[in-house]
């Protein structure tokens, strides 16, 4: 049988196949091969009564190491218009993390009943990201968000207090589970909480990704960073100097776009800060 791992606790994996959930253990061969099943994995299982064993992990389209989740179609980055105010650098860092991991990021701007934040919408629309404006409190904009989520596996990410759990409460039927997640987030127990997939009434899967927001940029060199800023992608190889860092060199295609307003100042500043951080990493740490 084929199924999807929707939850993992204490060495047991809960696999949904058709309309039933089976408690499964992973075969010992995975441990020998140093392969750990992830939430979201498509797997083959063998069933004996109500329980089963995972016999094969099917190829992953994408995955994150921390938290360990697989086969994500999109990452919904939830930010608040106010309380807490958006931290543009952290937003940009999370967007780059998603891009590095081959996950399409989109932005959900919550609490727009308090402030619309057209400036945030403009910054990320110009960077070629889709921005959904919602109010979990007033349940406004949720229908458009649901249309986007239908048929996809979407990871929700965002800092505490932005209303991520409130949105998940609205769009899923698993209110008790999501409620307990919210309490644990507020207590800061990110590392002790399991990740779980939740089904949407109209199709699609969503899950929270604790710890994703705290990740540092890893696995790339400073010179590769421009590839993960969509608004810079058409500037590659168009600068005067080969290997241009887009910081100090003259006749730079990125800085021309910056001067013309096609790249926003905040996005460029985030690029420079991340570039300098990556440049300062010792070579032996990159390996």
In words, what does this structure look like?
- The protein has 287 residues and is an alpha/beta fold.
- 29% of the residues lie in helices and 23% in strands.
- The chain has helices at residues 28-32, 88-100, 118-126, 142-149, 164-171, 175-186, 253-260, 265-280, 283-286, and strands spanning 2-9, 12-17, 20-26, 42-48, 51-57, 63-64, 69-70, 74-80, 104-110, 131-133, 153-157, 198-199, 205-208.
- The strands form three sheets. It has a six-stranded mixed beta sheet, with helices on both faces.
- It is globular and about 70 Å long.
- It starts with a strand and ends with a helix.
Q: Briefly note the structural class of the backbone.
A: alpha/beta
Instruction: Write the H/E string, N to C.
Output: EEEHEEEEEHEHEHEHHEEHHH
Would you count the extended β strands for me?
A: 13
Globally, the shape reads: globular
CA gyration radius, whole angstroms? 21 Å
Strand order of the largest sheet: 10-9-8-11-13-12
Percentage of residues in DSSP E strands: 15-25%
Roughly what is the average pLDDT, rounded to an integer?
Answer: 87
Profile the largest sheet.
Answer: 6 strands, mixed
The level of helicity is 25-40%
Question: What tags apply to this protein structure?
Answer:
about 290 residues, five-stranded mixed β-barrel, globular
What topology does this entry show?
Elements: E1 2-9, E2 12-17, E3 20-26, H1 28-32, E4 42-48, E5 51-57, E6 63-64, E7 69-70, E8 74-80, H2 88-100, E9 104-110, H3 118-126, E10 131-133, H4 142-149, E11 153-157, H5 164-171, H6 175-186, E12 198-199, E13 205-208, H7 253-260, H8 265-280, H9 283-286
Parallel strand pairs: 3-5, 8-9, 8-11, 9-10, 11-13
Antiparallel strand pairs: 1-2, 1-4, 2-3, 4-5, 6-7, 12-13
């Amino acid at each position: 049988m084929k199924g999807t791992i929707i939850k993992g606790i204490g060495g047991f994996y809960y696999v949904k196949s058709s309309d039933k959930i089976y408690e499964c253990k992973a075969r010992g061969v995975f441990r020998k091969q140093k392969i750990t099943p992830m939430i979201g994995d498509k797997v083959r299982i063998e069933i004996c009564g109500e329980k089963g064993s995972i016999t094969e992990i099917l190829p992953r389209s994408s995955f994150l190491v921390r938290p360990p989740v697989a086969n994500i179609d999109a990452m919904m980055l939830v930010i608040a218009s106010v309380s807490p105010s958006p931290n543009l650098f952290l937003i940009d860092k999370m967007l780059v993390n998603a891009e590095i991991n081959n996950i399409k990021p989109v932005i959900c701007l919550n609490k727009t009943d308090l402030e619309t934040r057209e400036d945030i919408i403009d910054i990320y629309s110009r960077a070629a990201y889709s921005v959904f404006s919602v109010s979990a409190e007033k349940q406004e904009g949720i229908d458009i968000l649901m249309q986007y989520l239908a048929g996809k596996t979407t990871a929700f990410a965002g800092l505490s207090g932005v209303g991520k759990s409130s949105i998940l409460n609205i769009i899923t039927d698993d209110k008790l589970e999501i409620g307990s997640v919210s309490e644990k987030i507020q207590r800061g127990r990110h590392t002790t909480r399991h990740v779980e997939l939740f089904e949407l009434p109209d199709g699609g899967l969503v899950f929270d990704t604790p710890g994703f927001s705290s990740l540092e940029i890893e696995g790339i060199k400073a010179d590769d960073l421009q590839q993960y800023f969509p608004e810079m992608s058409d500037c590659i190889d168009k600068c005067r100097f080969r290997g241009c860092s887009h910081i100090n060199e003259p006749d730079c295609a990125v800085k021309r776009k910056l001067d013309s307003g096609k790249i926003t100042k905040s996005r460029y500043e985030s690029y420079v800060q991340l570039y300098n951080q990556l440049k300062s990493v010792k070579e032996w740490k990159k390996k």
